[in-house]
Write the C-alpha cells for this entry.
Amino acid sequence: MDPAWDEFIITGEPFILAGQIAILVTTIGIIFILTYFKKWKWLWNEWITTPDHRKIGIMYIIASLLMMIRAGVDAMMMRTQLAAPNMPFLGEAQHYNEIFTTHGTIMIIFVATPFLIGLMNVAVPLQIGARDVAFPFVNNLSFWTFFWGAMLFNISFVIGGAPDAGWSAYMPLASNDLSMGPGQNFYLLGLQISGIGTLATGINLVTTIIKMRAKGMTLMRMPMFTWTTLITSLIIIGSFPILTVALAMQTFDRLWDAAFFTLQDGGMPMMWVNLFWLWGHPEVYIVILPAFGIFSEIITTFARKRLFGYTSMVFAIAAISGLSFLVWVHHFFTMGAGPMVNSFFSISTMAIAVPTGVKIFNWLATLHRGRIRFNVPMVWALGFIPNFTIGGVTGVMLAMAAADYQYHNTYFLVSHFHYVLIAGTIFGCFAGTIYWWPKMFGVKLNERLGHWVFWLFMIGFNVTFFPQYFLGLDGMPRRIYTYFPEDGWFSLNFLSTVGAYMMGFAFVLLVYNMYYSYRYEKRETSGDAWGGRTLEWATSSAIPPHYNFAQIPEVKDQDAFWQMKQEGVDPNGVEEYQDVHMPNHSGNPFVMCVFMFIGGFGLVFHWWTIGIIGALGIFACMIQRSFSRDDGHIVSAEEVRKEEAEIREGQANENG
Amino acid sequence: MRMDNKIDPKELEDFPDEERPLEYQTETGSLNIFGFWMFLGAEIVLFSALFGTYFVLIFRTDSSVLPTELFDMGLVLAMTFTLLTSSFTSGLAINEMRLGNARRMMIWIGITLVLGLGFLGMEIYEFVEFASEGATLATSAFWSAFFLLLGTHGVHVAMGVAWFIIILIQIKMRGLNPVTANKTFIASLYWHFLDVIWIFIFTGVYLLRLVIA
Amino acid sequence: MSNGTAATKKGHFPWKHVVGFISSIVLTLVALWIAFYSAFSVRTIIVLIFSLAFIQAALQLLMFMHMAESSNGRIQVGHILFSAFVAIVVALGSYWVMEFGIHLEHHM
C-alpha cells in the first residue's frame, strides 16, 4: 500500500482541519514557551528522565487528563449529532464511526487505565513506606510506552485516517476488506505499544508491594488501596498478554495475510471476539478495583472510622479477581453458543454481584455512626455508591442470557457500562486526584468550586445516561449515527445531549479549578492534609521529599498513621539520619519508546525499512541498558538531615 | 535500586541450610528474580492464548496441505532432545555458578548456546520445508496458528541466545559478581521456561494433531 | 574471577538436575509411545499425554528452576499456579466456547 500524499494527510473535513490547525498551533506554542523560558533542560532532567514514582504518577495523570479532553470532545460531537433526528452535524456515518471508535478506545486504554496507574504511582509507595517502586527504570519506561502508544493512536486522526471498527474492533469489520486504509493499523500498534507498558507496571507494582513494605506492615495491615493495586496488578499480569496475542494476530491478518479471523481460508472471526473479551472483561476489573480502593481510603478518612469488614473486603476483591476470568462470554451471548455455555457464563456473571454487594454494604457500614466530613473527595465517594449500584443492578439484568438477546447492542447496554465506568472509575479517578492533590502539588483544590463540579457532573451524568436505559428498552441500537422523527427517540436523546454538555462544562470547571487552586489556594504546611489514616500522610512535608521518608516508619496497625497519632508518635522524629540509596535518572526509556513509535508508524503504512529501523533502535537501547552499570546514588545522611531541618524551619515560619 | 546494600543475613532466613547464593546477595538482585517470576506468569498466559487459538483452529486447514502429511516426528524428537539437553546444561551452569566456578559455568553456557543454535537451525529447516510444500502463515487458519505459536517460541529462543551472549561478554569484562550472577540466573530461568513451553508444543501441537487426525 | 562466597556446598554433584533431565527424557518417550503405539482410545491418549506434559513442566519448574526457593518461594509458586489457572481457562475455555459447548468427540 502506497498512499498518495493527499491521502496520507487527511484533507477536506472541516473538523479535522480545525484539529490539524489546533495541533499545529499547540505544538508551536509549546516549543516556543519551552525555548523562550529556557525550560528544555529542566523538562529533560526533572521530568522526562525521572525515576521518581510521584513525578511519573503526575505525568500519567496529566497525560490522561489530556486524553480525556480529546475523548470527551468526541463524546460531545456524538451527542450533538444524536440530539435531534436527521442531524446534518457530522455529515456522514463514516465520521461518526471514527468518533465512537476513538472515544471508546481512548477512554478505556488511554484514560481509565493510565489515570489509575498514575494514582497508584503517587500513592502506593508512600502507603507502604517505600522510597520508590521496585524497578524505577521500568516505571519510567512504562510511562513512555503508554505516552508514545497513545500518540501513535492519536495521530491517526490527522494522518492516514482514524480507525472506525469500534473500540472492540470486531472482525471481519476490522479486516482489510471492510476497514481499508491504515486507520485500524494505528489502533493495533498503538494499543500494542502501550500494552507493553501496562504489563510492566503490573509486574513492577506486584514486586513493590510484595517485597518493599515497611517493617511491620503485614499483608493484612495494608491500606485498602494498596490491596486493590496488588490484585489489579495480578489481573494485569494475567490478562494483558491475551490482548498482546489477539492484537498480534489481527496485525498478522491485516499486514501479512494470515487467516486467523478472516472469512476465507478457514479463519474464525468470532475467535477475535473470544480473545478480545478474555482480556476485555478482566480489564473492566482492572479499571474498577483501584477505584474501589480509592473510595475505601476516602470513606474511612472522612467518616473518621476504621474500615468496616476489612477482611471480608480483601476476600471480596480476591474473589472478584478470580471470577473476572470466568465471565467473558457474557459479552457475546448472542453468538449463540450452546445452552451449557451461556448458562455457565450467566451464572458466573451473576455470582460477581455477591462480592461486589459485600463491598457496598461494607462501605455503608463504615459510614454508619461515622463522624462524616463532607469534603469534596467524600462527596464523590458518597455519589459513587448509589450511582454505581444502578449500574450494577442493570448489569445483573444483562447477565441473564435469554434477556440479553433483547438488550444486546441497544442503548440499554451503553447506559449500563457508562453507569459503572463513570460512576465507578471516573468518579474514583476524580475523587483520588482531589484526595491526593495536596500530596502531588502541596495545595488543596478549592472546595467551593469542587462542590460545584461534583453536583454539575453528577446531575449531568444522570441526565445523560438515565434516559438511555429507556431508549435502549425502546429499541434504539447503539452506534447508529442518526434516526428518524417517526422512531420517537427525539425527546430522550435531546435530554441526554443536554446532560452531556453539563458533564463537559463540569469537566472544564474541574480543570479550571486545578489552575485556580495552584494560583490562589493556601499552601499546605504539613504532610497530613485531611487528617489521614495511612502512611502517605505521615511524610515530613506536604509534597514528600524525594526520598519519601527520612526514616522508614514502623507499622503497628492497619491504620498505621492514625495509630501513631493516637499514641503521639512522630513518624519524622528521627534521632539518627542514615544514608539513603536512590535510583538514577535515565534517558534510555524515552529514546527506546521513541523508537517504538517510529517502528510502529512504519508498520502502520507497511514501510518495512522504517519498521526495521525502529526495531534496531529498540534493541540498541536494550543492549545499552544491559551494559550500563546503574547502581543508583547515595543521598548522604548529612544531606537528609539538612533537608529535613529546612522542611521543619519552613513549617515553623508558616505557623508562627 | 540499592545495588550495594547487602541484605543483612540475619534478617531474612531465605536459605536456612546454606549460604545465600551470589545472585540473591543484593536487594536489587532479589527483586529482579522475584519480578522475573511475575513476568514468567505473564508469559504462561501469553502462550496459553496462542495454544487456545491453535486448539480452536486445529481442523481449519481449509483446502491447504494437511499437517499429517508434513509433520516429521523424527525432526521433532531431535528438536525436543536438543532443547531438553540445553535446559539441562544451563542448569549445570547455574550449579557451577553457585559453586563459584566461573570458568566451568561459562563452558556450560557455551554448550547451551550451541544447542540453542542447533535447535533454531532445525526449526528454520522445518519452516522452510513446510513452506516449500505450500504451508505458510497465509495458507490457512490452521497454519497461521501453527506458525505464530511456533514462531513466537522460536523468537523467544533467539532472544535467549542473544541474551546469553551479552551476559557472557559482561562476565568476561567484569567477572562473576552479584550483578552478573543475578543476570545469569535470570537468563537461565528464561531458558528453562522455553523448554517448559516446548514440552507443551511437543504434546499439544504435534502429538495432539497426529493423534486426532 | 569468582569470589566464591557460595562455594561451600557439601555435595558437588548436581543430582537434582540429572534426575530431572533423565525423567524428562523418559516422560517424553512415554508420551510418544502412548500417542503412537498404545491401544487406548483417542480421548484417553489426549488426557494421558497432557498429564505427562504437566508432570514434566512441574519437574522443570522445581528441579531446574528452583521455583520454591528463597523467602518468596511460596508466593512464586502461588503466582505460577494462578497463571496456570488463567492459562487453562484461556486455552480450554476458548475451545469449549468456540465449539459452542459441543464435546471434543463430536469430531471423531
